[in-house]
């Protein structure tokens, strides 16, 4: 009985701890720049209201709002030059190899247009449009008091509240997960006080009309050939209580209403030729519901995702400070533990809000863009960015959000097979460092960065991670052809390097980095950069394991087994650092933002804490320093967590949360200056969402790891996080883990199997004086290889409890 009570108390403590928080972003004044605005989104459409008092701008987004079109950017006879390039690289004449590459081994045509591809076939993700609202308070004095603006993470609803002339006004904004519209609800605590004029526009390519009571915006983006690209339509309806509504020019004007709801329906022709009917149907259906019903359904659905995991770093926090002030305070005073809770859940919130089954994965800005020419075309970069966007997904218990990513990668197989033939005369499929929604797989337009060859294998590793976490064999069956096609490509495309007989990729880059050849010349193209070797080891092992599980392709597996041992091993240089290239080159920029050669430490798993290679990785990290762009800082949190250095990981988290100046919004900084905008969007700068996701993943990595075949509890806990708990983070092997700790020592934990699983816990992470319990009975785990081992059937749990 007592045990049962203990168990109940444990369960309650863990879930309550995670739920007790009211996590929100909040501010005392309207947004001054777009990066102050609170983002809402339902995975397909979204908005960023600025909360203006007399004028409000609400940027609207649709994740399919892409210019450009499918294209064949492959140079069909590139493979004729491959051997020559490879020979030169293996001889050490990288510069001569590059000269040939500049002509023959880049894409055909302008590619991404040096990150300015809006009017090219490459295209760009862009804003849908702006909704502009002019409020009329019937008074010249529009000074507001008691102003607040917030975004509630528990409900995915944003608000603006203020008092003006003794009237209290409230606006609520949501991007409904269930009704698929954006809705804004406006109320006042006195009758007849809601008056506004509402219009829509965008910087180019749009027409607005009023049809009946409906404001419509339509247009067509450039496809980069004849101008006839993606078509779009936005529809806006206002449902009012009292007052009068009329069309004035191309705007809707509401006068003296008691309350109003603005319903916004957005759609494009991207994979939806019937977008006009779709937007009408969605709008009509949504308007059957009043705002309260709409909000209730929205919140209920959202919480089924959001509520799947949480953390609660105890020891206080400054939740009562407005978020912008809070960031500034945290810069000099790290005693704000609940900021980590907020940042972790904000990452999960952004992920839930920016991707949705079978549409598209979050792009460089997730779902939120306020320009037509988004930085780097707002595309999908395969040399860190799209992968980082998915890092918190598995550990953060949102595995279902993996689908759009899988669909995007599946779309690369066909064009990637054409690219594989054209450049390497190889079977299978390959993609280079950038892609878009049109299946771009060709190399980039510049060989210094565009020759990176294993971005597509890295995609496979990410998709394989979903299997590692879930053990879902139906999923594995769908994934397997992708793995096989990718492995087949590299198997064929690699060559033997002469010094050791290792199998290497050639040509390739260590992403975006440049080195000095022994003769002092600078080069970027190389053979067998460390990252390629690490990624391919993982890809080959994963493909072998997958083939094994699915009982298929014995002969192919044998080939992979023979090849995988011929990949170059990780090498340590004279200076003790892990080598980034096959040779010990000096890098041109020692603090370069990419840390590609540490891939094997994170997200890979071949470098484990406490090993000599981990020391080399540490030396490399020390060499690169603790500054960087937003995503680079976020990556470093994960690296330090994997090295089990919690305090250093915390230092990097602190860096990620460094407030950036307003000017950072419009300037690209490639070297350092990463940090966070007022709305907690990560700053590369400019805004780039990968750092948000990398940061959230890093926090989880500090609390739980499972990449070495066993669970590590609190592997990198900083001194700052003395007490706390987390709930339902996921470990590989289909296990949800919840735990509490005090004075940095585990006090209780719970493990739930989401499939038939073998729970393996690092024995050293279980403090003395604790026991395992299942169904109220103490159980004794087996001990094997330094782990405590317990078999768990699907949907069963076991607990780790204090002995008394
Ligand atoms: C890679 C990075 C840049 C930037 C871009 C979108 O090229 O090297 O820093 O994040 O992607």
UniProtKB/TrEMBL annotation:
Residues 705-792 form the Alpha fucosidase A-like C-terminal domain. Residues 1-20 form the signal peptide. GO terms for molecular function: alpha-L-fucosidase activity. One of its GO terms (biological process) is carbohydrate metabolic process. Gene3D superfamilies: 1.50.10.10. Residues 25-271 form the Glycosyl hydrolase family 95 N-terminal domain. It holds the Pfam family Glyco_hydro_95_cat. This is Glycoside hydrolase. It comes from Chitinophaga parva.
